[in-house]
Specification:
Layout (H helix, E strand, L loop, with lengths): L1 E4 L10 E4 L9 E11 L1 H7 L16 E9 L11 E5 L8 E5 L3 E3 L6 H4 L3 H14 L6 E4 L5 H12 L3 E6 L2 H9 L4 E4 L5 H8 L4 E6 L3 H8 L2 E9 L12 H6 L3 E4 L2 H7 L1 H16 L7 E5 L4 H9 L6 E4 L1
Parallel strand pairs: 8-9, 8-11, 9-10, 11-12, 12-13, 14-15
Antiparallel strand pairs: 1-2, 3-4, 3-6, 3-15, 4-5, 5-7
Helix pairs in contact: 3-4, 9-10
The chain binds NADP nicotinamide-adenine-dinucleotide phosphate.
């Protein structure tokens, strides 16, 4: 099969196109012929050798695909050859063919193009898990960081579906526009030096939940915005800075700081992930979920796509077709 290969740790320009052996489809797995791939911020960490668990070189990066099932192993539930699907895979996504555990595969309505569906599984899977972990309830106030990004836009749509009030933190006017189109009630600037005050001006009594895919100063500022019983949900560190936490702040205000790992939950609690997909597919059909594709590039332009993410230049997901 044709694929993008990572042969040495480094940046997007180190990746090379070439042929790799076809993946083998085992029991509980499906083979997907890939039509489009979602480009993820985490790919940058994986190819740089900065992810928690490093794959063995050489490997095919890529964690999000859309296409059709071309083979199934035993025990794949209602997944069958010919089905239109999107899937999360640990690695291997930037290729013609990929094998995915059946628990990580969602049905996609025929009406949704693969180039949009490729922006669905990681963003909405992670967002759903994050909001479940937060126990976000109707009427609560949530601040969403990186809200014009892929995970951020998914969090906005799913938080609005739960009838929460959403304050979206965005870095520029293009991302603000996208966040508002997703249903955000208010926006604040991630570039502001007074983020805590900006949020307090909108929610003077504090907020119930913060969704943090950014870390750094965003974490420090928004932790102080949480009210009694508030929950800080840690998703990632797009700022490149891992915050330190003074636990006394959390204790005296009766708050929680909770980590969310979509990837680890896929391996530790696969049935929980499998149970999420039918509900999310239904939300696509109802028009509640509209994956935001900020840029669509040809498959050959993966290095450029990753560079756009690194430079914070895209609102929503970058997709390769
Ligand atoms: N824990 C999990 O299970 C899980 C799952 C998926 C993704 N993630 C993580 O979630 C984060 C967001 O992923 P994504 O796919 O939504 O990425 P994305 O589309 O690139 O969005 C990231 C957002 O972070 C903000 N940001 C702030 N400082 C930044 C900086 N120095 N460099 C780049 N971006 C910066 C940007 O917003 P502004 O420019 O508007 O401020 C950007 O829109 C990543 O850290 C990723 O690893 C975690």
């Amino acid at each position: 099969m044709h694929a993008w290969k990572c042969e040495t740790w480094g940046g997007p320009r180190h990746l090379k196109q070439g042929s790799m052996p076809d993946p083998v489809c085992g029991d509980g797995e499906v083979e997907i012929t890939v039509k489009a791939c979602g480009v993820n911020y985490s790919d940058l960490l994986v190819i740089a050798g900065r992810s928690q668990v490093k794959p063995t070189l050489p490997f095919v990066p890529g964690m999000e695909v859309a296409g059709r099932i071309t083979r199934t192993g035993a025990d794949c539930g209602d997944l069958k050859t010919g089905d239109k699907v999107a899937a999360y895979v640990k690695y291997g996504g930037y290729a013609d063919k990929v094998v995915a555990p059946a628990t990580q595969v969602a049905h996609i309505p025929e009406s949704m193009p693969a180039s949009i569906a490729a922006a669905f599984p990681v963003s909405y899977g992670s967002a759903q898990l994050a909001l479940e972990r937060a126990g976000l309830a109707s009427g609560e106030v949530v601040v969403i960081g990186g809200a014009g990004g892929a995970v951020g836009t998914a969090c906005i749509e799913l938080a609005k579906h739960r009838a929460a009030t959403v304050i979206a933190c965005v870095g520029d006017s293009a991302k603000e526009k996208v966040a508002l189109a997703c249903g955000a009630d208010e926006t604040v600037s991630s570039r502001s030096r007074h983020l805590q005050d900006d949020i307090a001006a909108i929610a003077p009594d504090g907020v119930d939940v913060v969704i943090d895919p950014v870390g750094g100063r965003f974490f420090d500022d928004t932790l102080r915005c949480l009210r009694y019983n508030g929950r800080m949900i840690e998703l990632g560190f797009a700022s490149g800075k891992i915050p330190n936490l003074r636990l006394n702040q959390v204790l005296i205000r009766h708050q929680g700081v909770l980590g969310v790992s979509f990837g680890l939950t896929c391996s530790k609690d696969p049935q929980r992930i499998a149970r999420m997909w039918p509900g999310l597919t239904e939300l696509i059909e109802q028009g509640v979920i509209n994956p935001r594709v900020g840029r669509s590039l040809p498959f050959s332009e993966l290095p450029r796509a990753l560079q756009l993410l690194q430079d914070r230049k895209v609102a929503g997901r970058v997709v390769l077709t």
